[in-house]
């Protein structure tokens, strides 16, 4: 007999979880309640013990209980401050230390306050505290000497970093800013400075990493949130959902934030069109892709120009939107050149033009793409297509070989590599089109006309030679035969023994057009020039009459 539980398994687990949470809450309340009944001295002893065993949060709770009983207990207030520092709550620790100093001129509190200012990069405030300490306390203090040395070093590195960024020595700027950050790890200004130096070198990932630290150090800064979102979306080309996180956090803390609301709308609008471009590109909707990216006659409304405009605006303050400082330093040159999003838009556009076989229209956008990213597949393909169109087969083969070695799964490259290799092979064989003086798309009528004209000039008595006549026959006999012409166009010369055809491919009957054209010469009773020479490869002798 099957026995069914009164509660489904998931419900049982939920009930157990609620029971555990309730028990922990009661235990915490019981512990807190029990602690609140302890004498002050025991509370302090217990808090000190918790702190010594690494339980800083619990120790902080007990110090606060003590201070509820005696708010002017400066020693407990000092311990609370140092506990807050250990938890990374430097802002609160600073407030606690300032209160300590308002109660008593306590040397340790002043040293700790100076240390907080140094770590946060507030060098002026640090200097003030150290000068006050020197006036009122032991000038030979080891802590004082150490802090003064660190302050001097940090100020020097900051000055050097600023000097190097002005002189465009960005690598040195990063080194100097990094040295200052070791002393002042909680300085948002130093992180921002190093981010700028990284960005100007094109080190976008590193620049974004520093901006992430800035948002943690300045959680209420809308500008910091916007910078991080901006870098993520425009320069790293991260997915919208990831890029939006700092903006959403900004709007969560301040739903009416003008700059964050504006950025939210901008990114949403761009992403809507970008999604369309991706879909069209993936389905080979090339014309629709171009219309979205670069609408003819209205380029400013296209996705590429709109993206450029937003990036350009980022280097200017926007007081109306509540942005009092640029998101990107105005000193950054060619800021668009660092945008991976723009590079991807160029790639979509280049692919579309190549897909439509509009090489002339593709040239501008594809060359820009190749200049931005010389490893982009479509930039390489476009360049190869341009080379092949100019019959520069060897450079095309070399370019595509290198690309193929890095993208072996890319069919678009492998198919064009085969095309270029075939073109190179054809270019090294006899050029029958050149012999007849016709383009490669010449029809049968054009071939006949060119052949007749060329044979008149090729006669030995007209300044020609037997070799020239033989070359004309070879060329015409291949190109006038659709099957042989197709073989020739694919790199297989029917007249080349190395191509698998040993000897002359035409049997020995000669060219019927050639025979028909010069039939008159045979019935006329001879050649007034007294010359005869063999035609085709047939071994047949032809007589000619000119005039």
UniProtKB/TrEMBL annotation:
Where the TPR repeats fall, as residue ranges, is: 40-73
Query: Per the database record, which ranges form the J domain?
Result: 431-492
Q: A GO term (biological process) for this protein?
A: protein folding in endoplasmic reticulum
Q: Where in the cell is it found?
A: Endoplasmic reticulum lumen
- Please provide the record's keywords in A-Z order: Endoplasmic reticulum, Repeat, Signal, TPR repeat
Question: What is the protein named?
Answer: Tetratricopeptide repeat and J domain-containing co-chaperone DNJ1
A GO CC term assigned to this protein in UniProt: endoplasmic reticulum lumen
One GO molecular function term of this record is:
protein-folding chaperone binding
CDD domains named in the record: DnaJ
Q: What are the boundaries of the region Disordered?
A: 488-509
Q: Does the keyword Disulfide bond apply?
A: no
UniProt cross-references to Pfam families, sorted A to Z: DnaJ
- Hey, what's the signal peptide range on this chain? 1-30
* InterPro entries noted in UniProt: DnaJ_C3_Co-chaperones, DnaJ_domain, J_dom_sf, TPR-like_helical_dom_sf, TPR_rpt
> Mainly localized where?
endoplasmic reticulum
The reply on keyword Repeat is yes
């Amino acid at each position: 007999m099957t026995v069914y539980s009164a509660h489904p398994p998931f419900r049982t687990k939920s009930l157990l979880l609620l029971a555990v949470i309730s028990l922990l809450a009661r235990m915490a309340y019981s512990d807190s309640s029990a602690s609140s009944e302890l004498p002050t001295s025991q509370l302090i002893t217990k808090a000190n013990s918790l702190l010594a065993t690494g339980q800083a949060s619990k120790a902080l709770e007990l110090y606060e209980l003590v201070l509820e009983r005696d708010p002017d207990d400066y020693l407990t207030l000092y311990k609370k401050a140092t506990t807050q520092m250990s938890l990374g709550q430097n802002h609160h620790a600073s407030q606690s230390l300032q209160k300590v100093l308002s109660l008593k001129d306590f040397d340790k509190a002043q040293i700790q306050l100076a240390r907080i200012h140094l770590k946060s990069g507030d060098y002026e405030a640090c200097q003030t505290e150290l000068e006050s300490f020197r006036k009122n306390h032991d000038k030979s203090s080891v802590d004082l000497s150490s802090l003064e040395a660190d302050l001097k070093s940090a100020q020097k590195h900051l000055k050097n970093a600023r000097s190097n960024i002005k002189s465009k020595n960005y690598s040195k700027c990063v080194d100097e800013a990094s040295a200052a950050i070791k002393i002042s790890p909680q300085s948002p200004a130093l992180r921002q400075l190093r981010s700028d130096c990284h960005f100007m070198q094109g080190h976008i990932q590193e620049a974004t990493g520093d901006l992430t630290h800035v948002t943690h150090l300045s959680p209420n800064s809308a500008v910091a949130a916007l910078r991080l979102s901006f870098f993520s979306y425009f320069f790293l080309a991260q997915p919208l959902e990831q890029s939006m996180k700092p903006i959403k956090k900004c709007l969560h803390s301040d739903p009416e934030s003008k700059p964050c609301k504006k950025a939210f709308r901008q990114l949403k609008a761009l992403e809507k069109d970008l999604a369309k471009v991706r879909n069209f590109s993936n389905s080979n909707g090339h014309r629709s892709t171009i219309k979205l990216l670069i609408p003819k006659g209205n380029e400013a409304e296209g996705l590429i120009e709109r993206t450029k405009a937003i990036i350009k605006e980022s280097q200017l303050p926007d007081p109306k939107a509540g942005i009092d400082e640029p998101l990107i330093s105005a000193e950054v040159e060619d800021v668009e050149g660092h945008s991976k999003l723009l590079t991807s838009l160029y790639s979509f556009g280049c692919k579309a033009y190549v897909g439509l076989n509009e090489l002339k229209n593709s040239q501008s956008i594809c060359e820009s793409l190749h200049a931005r990213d010389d490893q982009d597949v479509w930039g390489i393909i476009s360049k190869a297509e341009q080379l092949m169109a100019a019959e520069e087969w060897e450079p095309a083969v070399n370019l595509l070989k290198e690309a193929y070695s890095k993208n072996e799964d890319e069919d678009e490259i492998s198919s064009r590599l085969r095309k270029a290799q075939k073109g190179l092979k054809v270019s090294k064989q006899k050029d029958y089109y050149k012999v007849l003086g016709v383009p490669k798309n010449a029809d049968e009528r054009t071939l006949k006309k060119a052949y007749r004209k060329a044979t008149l000039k090729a006669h030995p008595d007209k300044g020609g030679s037997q070799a020239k006549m033989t070359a004309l026959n070879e060329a015409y006999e291949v190109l006038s035969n659709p099957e042989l012409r197709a073989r020739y166009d694919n790199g297989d010369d029917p007249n080349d023994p190395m191509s698998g055809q040993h000897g002359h491919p035409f049997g020995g009957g000669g060219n019927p057009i050639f025979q028909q054209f010069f039939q008159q010469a045979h019935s006329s009773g001879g050649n007034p020039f007294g010359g005869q020479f063999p035609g085709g490869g047939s071994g047949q002798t032809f007589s000619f009459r000119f005039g």
